[in-house]
Structure formats: structure tokens, C-alpha cells
Amino acid sequence: MIRLEDISIDLGDFRLDSFSLSVGEGEFFMLVGPSGAGKTVLLEAIAGLHDPSSGRVLVSGRDVTRLAPERRNVALVYQDYALFPHLTVKENISWGLRFAKDPDLGHVDGLVSLMRLESLLHRFPGTLSGGEQQRVALARALAVKPSVILLDEPVSALDPRFREDLQDYLSRINRDGMTLVMVTHDFNEVLSLGHRVAVILEGTLQQVGEVKSVFREPLNRQVAEFVGMKNLFRAEIGDRKALIEGGATLVLNGQAARGGYLVGIRPEDVIIGRDIPDKGGNCFWGKVVSIVSRGMAFEVILQVGEMKLAGRMLSSSLVREEIHVGGDCRVGFSPESIHVFSKSS
Amino acid sequence: MNRSFRERWFMVLMGSFLVIYIIWPLAGMFIRADWRIVASTAKDAQVVGALWRSIWTAAASTAIIALFGTPLAYFLARNNFRGKSVLEAIIDVPIMVPHTVAGIAILMAFSPKAPAGALLVRAGLSPVNSHLGIILACTFVSIPFFVDSARDAFYGVSPRLENVSRTLGATFPHVFFRITLPLAKKGIISGLIMSWARGVSEFGAIVIVAYHPMIAPTLIYDRFATFGLKYSTPIAVQLILVCLAMFVILRLLVAGKRVEEQGS
Fold first, then answer.
1. How many domains does chain B fold into?
2. For residues A160 and A183, what is the distance between their CA atoms, to the nearest angstrom?
3. What mean pLDDT do residues A137-157 have?
4. B51-83, pLDDT tens digit by residue?
5. How confident is the model at residue B257 (pLDDT cuts 50, 70, 90)?
6. B159 to chain A: nearest residue by CA?
7. Of A46, A301, B170, B181, which residue is most buried, by most CB within 10 angstroms?
8. Residue A30's beta-bridge partner residues?
9. What is the CATH number of the domain that holds B107?
10. Which domains does chain A possess?
11. Range of the domain at B88
């Protein structure tokens, strides 16, 4: 559906370097990366708003690299909605139709009812809530029947209750066959909506893959840190075991190549408690160093020998297992949850 | 007396000095004007001609500035480049230069001996002591008032609105005339008014390039120099009345449009 081949963009203070990526038909594709990593620029380049200094952009098999934005059939939705403030909701939604060869008015009526906008048609954008504005922006994008919709953090400016509402709409649009490419900062969103994800750090594409695999098997330390794999250790790998610098030996699931590698365990996979069944090793005594609130869950940091391990617990489990700072407890994780990085370190 | 009340009154008191400073001398002129002479000068063909000339030459130079200045202002609002601040400073030079100096510069540039002037003369146009001369001088001094205002207006329109409308199929001219320009309208109209007002009030630059045909400020100066205060004041009063009327009408038009938008 979308193919980027060796795209480089130089905007003076910002550059993307030889970027290649492909998004399949009907896919819900996620772009993640820290602020300023170039995700918005990438979307705008696909839409034709920045000229790449080299490389090609293909949409539906057609080379659009030199094509003006209005001839690409690629729609764009911004975080701040970008509705035309001097036009009514109805005029906003039908903006793109005046340029279509044979505008499909029935399609627009369908969108209006899908997005529940019937009662708002004659209002101006300034009088709508954030959620309503973003629904109008989505309807406006869908009205031109684009081959793909690019979404730049479409829900991050919304109140939480509107956020889920809009996520449901996005998921529904995708199920109906629309290809979506979305920039987001919210990992929950990536996990719940995305099929595949690309991690962009400092203007370069670090990793692309199935959402689960990128989160569980990051390619390198930077990606691991970015996707929240907090427990990273250097280890010597040999015979289904990983000898962590500083003492502990972890049991691995299957054999990796021998040598010095980085290993990682997601905090969600670390089990903490008074009494953990020791199934196949990887179970230790640890001392609780700190407990930090992370919203719905707590992050518990344990000292295990030389190793500092981070785990996640709900407050009810904290109480049940009598976990408190300075106390001792058991900590464990399954051999499957240990990710051995592919590059030797 | 609470604090915010005291603060407000402090600002009102200080600020009113300047407002009074504007109103006081102008009001005095109206009070002390001899209205019989005002009435008779209103029928004086030379006075009416000068007033009308002031209005249309200022309008003509504003039209020229809008034609060339709108793309310039848009370019400045949408692009960052090396030397942008130098370019912006150049655009503001006419504000800084004494207007007599501006007049001399224009006169030298367009005198029949200079290349540009010679070109105009060959085309059958006379750049000195002519309506064209008035417009040339007017244009020079009014440029910054329009360009700065239009640039700020374009700056206030998010490029994202333009981006989105492009991706929905609109060509650049369509986006410019249907999205950008309507949203920048307020600042553009304000720039047009300022540019026109600057043109109508210009004297220093114009008097050097074209003493004749006389615009209203030149005629006022001419009457003042030859007949004195008594005979120059009535024309001054008329010029103020005409300018105020235009100013109020234009402002009301803009405000009226704004109310219409909010109301619908």
C-alpha cells in the first residue's frame, strides 16, 4: 500500500536518513519514537508536504514522489484537528468533495451518521468539544475515500473518555478496510490497536515488526529502553544459561549463540511475592529498594545480588504479599520471558 | 479599595494622558475653526480636487502594494531562511527614513536623467510633478504598513490547515483563496487601511517628488505658508473629517463582517 524506499529528508534543523518502510493494505500501522524523532515529518512526507532529497514514495504501487499532495489520495489527520474555523461542520466534511470528479454524497451521509455528527452539521468547529472536532476531522478525511489515512497523535489531546471513543472509531474504520498509519506516544494504544509498529529514534528507523515482537524482542538497547524493557543486563551466554555480570545465573529457554550478549526482561514479566513456585530456576531472594507509583500499578525495584530488577505490582498484591521497602521477598521470571539480544555486546 | 481596582485605575489614568494628547489638539482645531470659511472652502474646486487626489492616489499605491506585497508577506510568514531578518529590516526601512529623505531618494531614482525615470518618460509617463510621482512616493512610505500586517496575519493561520486541505484535493491557489486568505482577512484589511491612511497623511516625501498637482497636505502647507493659519485650518478640518469618515466606514465594514461570521 505504502512503500518508502531510501527516503532522506533534510529540513535544516532536522533530518531523516535513508528510510525504508512498507505498510500493507488494510494494516493498522504504528509509528513510535520520542518527541522530535521525525514522526510528523515522515507522515507529512508521505502526504507530499515535504520533498525528499532522495528516495521514492509509492502509494498503491504508484510512484508519487514528485506528485503534489492533492494528487496522492493520502489523507492526514492532526492532533489539533486542523478544522477550518470559518466553515461549518458540514462544509468541513464536504471540503474535499468539491475537487472529486464524481463526489459520493451518499458516502458522506453514511460517515455523518457513523460519526454521530447529524446534530452538529451547522455548528462551527470552535463550538465543539475535542472529541467532536476529531470525529469531524476523521469524517472529513474519510469523505474523499483516501487510499490511506495518516494520523498524527489523533487522540492524545482528548479527554480520556473521548479517547477510548475515538480509538473505537479508528479500530472500526480499520476493520472496514481502511489502511491507517498512526503516530502515537501511548504504548497501550500501540498494543491494543496496532498490527505492526516502527520505532524511530533520532531520525533513523530502529526496528519494524509485529507489535508484540517489538515489545518483547527489541533489536538493541535503545529500542529496549524506549519500549519499556527496564531490566537490561550484560551476560555471558553458554549452554542454555546466561551468566549475569555480578553473579546470578539465569536459565534460558533454548540455546542462543555463545558469547557476550545483552539480555532483557520486561517488568511485567517479573513476579514478586512471599512464595513463588520455583519452576526451572530464575527464582531468587531480593531486597525491596523502592516502590514507585506508576498510575494504576506500582513499580517495585529489587536488589538481587549485584542485579537491580524492576517489576510491576498492583496495590492489592503489594498488600497481600506484604511488600515494603527494606523487606525481603522472592522474585522470579520464566525462561521464556528472557530476551537475548541478537547483536553481541 | 481592592487591589485589582487600584491597578486598573492606575492604568486608566496613565493611559488616558496619551488618548487626551491625541484628541485635545484635534478637537481644538474643530472648536476654533471658522465654520463660515470651512463651508466656503468646501466649494473651492482646488480644495475638493486636492482632497480627492489624496484619496485616490493613496488608494492606488495601496492597490500596488497589496498586489506585490501579499505574496511577499505570505512568503515571509511561511519560510525561514538565512537573511530573513535582514529582508524584514529592509521592508521596515521606509518607517525609519525621514520622509524628506525618502522623497529625495525617489526623486533621484525616477528623475528623467536616471535609467528608471528615463524609461518612464520614454513610455510617455512623467514621474516628477505628476500623479505618478505622488503614487511613487506614497507607495515607498506605505509598504511596511501593509506587508508587516499581512505577514502577521498569515503567520496566524496554521500551515496545518493548508496541509490538510491540500491532502484533501485542493490545489495551492484554491487553498490560498478559500482557506488562508479568508482566515487572514482581518489582518490584511487592517494592513490595507493602515497603508492607505499612511498614503493620505504623507507630505514630506510627496512634496519633494510632486509639489504639483497638489494633494491635500501640500495644499494645507501652501495655504499656511502664503495666507497663514486662518486659511489653512479649514482644509485641515476637512481632511480630518474625510479621513475619519473613511476610517470609521472601513473599520465598521470589517467589524460587521466579523459579527456576521459569529452570528451564523
1. 1
2. 18
3. 93
4. 999 999 999 999 999 999 999 999 999 999 999
5. low
6. A82
7. A46
8. A182, A197
9. 1.10.3720.10
10. 2-221 (3.40.50.300), 229-344 (2.40.50.100)
11. 47-219
CB-CB under 8 Å, A72 with B164: no
**Which ranges in B176-228 belong to alpha helices (H)?**
181-201, 204-209, 216-227
The pLDDT of residue A102 is: 80
Q: Is residue B232 part of a domain?
A: no
* Chain B residues near any Cβ of chain A (below 8 Å): 80, 158, 160-161, 163-172, 174, 179, 182-183, 261
Residue of A nearest to B261 (CA): A86
Q: Is A132 on the interface with B (CB under 8 A)?
A: no
Instruction: Look at residue B262 and tell me whether its pLDDT is greater than 80.
Output: no
- pLDDT for B261 beyond 70: no
In a domain, B122, yes or no: yes
For A229, the 3-state DSSP assignment is coil
State which of A155-159, A252-256, A296-300, B58-62 shows the largest mean pLDDT.
Answer: B58-62
Chosen for mutation from A67, A76, A93 (greatest number of chain B CBs closer than 10 Å) is A76
Taking each helix axis from N to C end, the angle separating B131-155 and B181-201, rounded to the nearest 10 degrees, works out to: 150
Give the distance from residue A324's alpha carbon to the nearest chain B alpha carbon, in angstroms.
50
Nearest beta carbon to residue A70 from set B80, B161, B169: B169
Cβ pair A135, A93 in contact under 8 A: no
Q: Which residues in chain B have Cβ-Cβ distances shorter than 8 Å to A72?
A: 167
Residues of A with CB below 8 A from B164's CB? 76-78, 82, 137, 140
> Does B36 map to a domain?
no
**Alpha carbon of A11: minimum distance to chain B alpha carbons (Å):** 11
Residue B257 falls within a domain, yes or no? no
∠ CA(A87), CA(B164), CA(A16), 5° rounding? Answer: 160
Could you list the beta-strand ranges (E) of B13-106. none
Q: Which CA distances in Å does A49 have to A69, A181, B62?
A: 6, 16, 33
Residues of B in Cβ contact (< 8 Å) with A78: 160, 164
Does B213 sit behind a cis peptide bond, omega within 30 degrees of 0 on the bond before it? Answer: yes
